[in-house]
Amino acid sequence: MEIYTARYGFLSSELAALYGFPAPAEEFGLVRFPAASDRAGLLGQATFLTLTSKPEETSPTERGLFIREHFLCQKVPPPPPGVSASLPPLSESKPMTSRERLQVHLSNESCASCHRLIDPIGFGLEKFDAIGRKREKLALTFFAARGEAERKPIKVELDLDIKGRISGIPDSDFSSPAELGQVLASNAECQKCVVKQVFRYALGRLETPADRAVIDKGFDDFKRSQFKFQQLIISLVTSPAFCETARYD
Q1: Residue 73 CA, distance from chain mean position
Q2: Is residue 16 within 8 Å of residue 23, measured between CB atoms?
Q3: How far apart are CA 19 and CA 46, in angstroms?
Q4: Given this model, what pLDDT does residue 27 score?
Q5: How confident is the model at residue 249 (pLDDT cuts 50, 70, 90)?
Q6: pTM for this structure?
Q7: Are strands 154-159 and 29-32 parallel, antiparallel or unpaired?
Q8: Which residue has the higher pLDDT, 99 or 246?
Q9: What is the C-alpha to C-alpha distance for residues 161 and 237, in angstroms, rounded to an integer?
Q10: In this predicted structure, what is the pLDDT of residue 45?
Q11: 155 with 140: CB under 8 angstroms?
C-alpha cells in the first residue's frame, strides 16, 4: 500500500523543478521528498493530477470520481439524461473557486446525490493545479473581451478551501495528497480494490459473483503478507479462475 504513501519519486530535472525540489543526481533518479511536502504516492504525482484535470483548470469532480472508481472500486452512475453539467462562468465581477462554482450541482438533487460522493474528495487536492504544481492561491486572469478597448489583463487571486473528505469512510478528513494517501492505504475497501484491479488486469475482465472466493483469498493472502504485491500476484495466478483462462488462451 506504499503506492499511496511513498515519500519519494523518480524524477527528471524538469519534473523536480515543477515539484519545487532539487534536481536529481541523474535523470529519473530517486528523490526523497522533504518531510513537510504534501506529496506522496500516486496521488501526489503530476501524472495523476494532470490526468484528472481539465486543460486549463483543475476538476475536483474528475479527481474525486477517479479515486472512487479506481482506488475504491465503487461505480458512480453517469449524470441523468438532459442534465446540464455546465458550471457558472468566471467573470471579473464575480471570480469564484472551483468549490464555489460546484455548489450549483448541489441545487439539483438528481446531481447532488453523486456529487456529494465525489466533489469533496477532489476539494482536498485543490492545493495542486491542473499540471500538478503546488499553489497557495487560485490565480485567475481576465483578458479584454472581443470588441472591448485594449487593456491590460486583470489578475485575481482567491484563497483556496482545501478541506476534503471521503463520504462513507470515518475519520477521512484530509487536505493534501499525502494525507489522502494515508486514509486510502489503511482502508480495507481500498486494499481489496487493489486485489480486484489486479484480478481484472490478469483475467482481462471484471469480476463476477462467482469470483468472490478468488478475490477473498487474494485479499487474505495480500493482507497476510503485509501487502506485498508479489504475494498478491502469486495468489491470483495460481487461482482456478486464472488457470482456466490461461488454459484456453
Answers
A1: 13
A2: yes
A3: 8
A4: 95
A5: low
A6: 0.91
A7: unpaired
A8: 99
A9: 45
A10: 96
A11: yes
Contact 7, 40 (CB under 8 A): yes
Report which of 128, 54, 39 is spatially closest to residue 86, judged by C-alpha positions: 54
CA distance 193 to 25: 36
Kindly report, residue by residue over 127-159, the tens digit of the pLDDT: 999 999 999 999 998 887 776 667 788 899 999
Answer whether residue 73 shows pLDDT above 70: yes
Instruction: Provide the pLDDT for residue 79.
Output: 80
Q: Longest Cα pair distance anywhere in the chain, in angstroms? A: 72
Q: H-type helices in 20-135, by residue range?
A: 46-51, 60-66, 98-101, 109-123
Neighbours of 211 (CB within 10 A): 18
- Residue 142: exposure state from Cβ atoms within 10 A (0-12, 13-18, ≥19): middle
Per-residue confidence (pLDDT) for residue 30, from 0 to 100: 94
CA-to-CA distance for 77 and 72, rounded, in angstroms? Answer: 15
CA distance 81 to 84: 9
CA dihedral 123, 129, 130, 133 (to 10 degrees): -140
44: left (phi over 0), alpha (psi -120 to 50) or beta: alpha
Q: How far is CA 92 from the centre of its chain?
A: 30
Residues 201 and 143: their CA atoms lie apart, in Å, by 47
CA dist., res. 191 & res. 146, Å (int): 52
User: Helix, strand, or coil here: 151?
Assistant: coil
Please tell me the total number of residues recorded for the chain in this structure: 249
User: What radius of gyration, in Å, describes the C-alpha atoms of the chain?
Assistant: 21
The 10 Å CB-count burial string (b at 16+, else e) for 71-81 is bbbeeeeeeee
Could you tell me which residues are beta bridge partners of residue 156?
140
